[in-house]
Amino acid sequence: MAYRPRYTLDRRHFRSCGHQYQTLFRTHKSANNMGTHHPTTEIETGSSNIFTDLGFKDADGLSTLTALGIQVMKTIREKELSQKEAGKLLGLKQPEVSPIMRAKFSRFSQERLIGFLNKLEQKVTIQVSRHHRGEPYQQVTVAR
Question: Quick one: which of 10, 99, 137, 141 could link to 104 by a disulfide (CB 3.0–4.6 Å)?
Answer without folding.
Answer: 99
